[in-house]
Design a protein that fits this description.
Helices cover 40% and strands 15% of the residues. The protein is globular and about 70 Å long. By secondary structure, the protein is of the alpha/beta class. It folds into two domains: 277 residues, 3-Layer(aba) Sandwich (Aspartate Aminotransferase, domain 2); 113 residues, Aspartate Aminotransferase, domain 1. α8 packs parallel to α9 and α14 packs across α15. Bound molecules: pyridoxal-5'-phosphate (PLP). The site of pyridoxal-5'-phosphate has 14 residues, from α4.
Length: 446
Amino acid sequence: MAPVIYPTTNLTATEQLCLDRGEGIYVFDTDGNRYIEGLAGLWCTSLGYSNQELVDAIAGQLGKLPFTHMFGGKTHEPAMELANRLADMVPIEDPYFFFGNSGSDANDSHIKMLRYYFNAIGKPQKRKIITRDRGYHGVTVAAGALTSLPANLAHFDAPVEALDILRTASPHYYTGRQGNETETQFVDRILDELKQQILSEGPDTIAAMIVEPITGASGVIVPPEGYYEKLQDLLRQHDILVWSDEVICGFGRTGNDFGATTMGIKPDLMTFAKQLSSAYFPISAAVIPGWMYEAMIEPSNQVGVFGHGYTYSGHPAACAAALKTLEIYERDKIFEHAATVGDYLQAQLRERFSDHPLVGEVRGKGLIAALELVANKTTGQGFDGAVAGGFAMKACERNGLILRAVAGNSVALCPPLIITQSQVDDMLDSLSKGLEETWDHVRAEG
Ligand code: PLP
């Protein structure tokens, strides 16, 4: 078998889990074993597997017009309809949409649009972007520079300085608090540090700050109460735009339409991918407000053509997949369902796992959650290396549950939004067995 390069995998082909098909919240391997897809693929298959309506919508579009590009005055109905549909949903006034293929490229597009916009209005120095430690925003060269996870940043010589990217503290109280700091003291301290950074860099050199409302890939971090309110006050005071990366949180994941709604963020810019099409076809969107677009196309601006776009920007089949996904979300009240089942998941996780000797913190909102596995529950001290997280992931897999170890020793759950309460119970039964095996392993290893 020809080898395939994929990150963080040093398993041989026979050691890898080879999936064959899916149905609802379940996937089956090539030996016929069934697993609950507890991470919705990679935080994305919101409507689960084998959704025939999505398959038909995509096939219908492929049969009608499989491709047209969106350059030089061309467009097509699915793209226009999708932009209209999204415009009714997003909390941005008079929004404009740039379609791409992945979360990474949507974030790259925003970096370019910000540069282009500030050049167009004669403020070329306003180009820095603030990102947070433990933020994950993708892996292309620019989005990779916004990302702060060591494995995605180290070894690649990401052009962090060239791109004028500034880093600030992650709002993770559990791992970031100092001494007996309360949550409020912690928030005030990290935001004061950010304020000093903004002042020393010069507010007129900073374009925007990117945030995942709840960070996903770096451990499902839910910032403390009050954090976003204070953060936005600070950014607005200094004329810095708020950019919500909704690639994981968008479309029902946190129990609302967007993570921004759940966390009280009023974004100027947004990026989407993943659940926009329930991952049935790759598509992303970078959203800007009308006032920004108007300035970009103003004929008197001296910048020239906005020369950016991908061959597959607004791919017709991707737009058809997204349109059908949004239709199902609305028709089947998927966000409301996610809110109800999400509350149940969060309550059950706390009830069943808070006292587990391996679990330092249970966190999450809606249908996204993580357990932080620690070496010492009393002090919260973590493990050296990803020893518990990696083991737990494989142990859960042996017990019929696919989840993901993130940021070392956190195990993340993010099931399809269609999961039912009784399926949540099954998922947590498998998690429980996986954790018991992990606990035995950790004790045996000393
Ligand atoms: N932004 C966030 C918050 C993500 O979680 C991800 C991927 O997980 C990305 C951006 C990058 O998306 P993609 O993998 O589609 O490039």
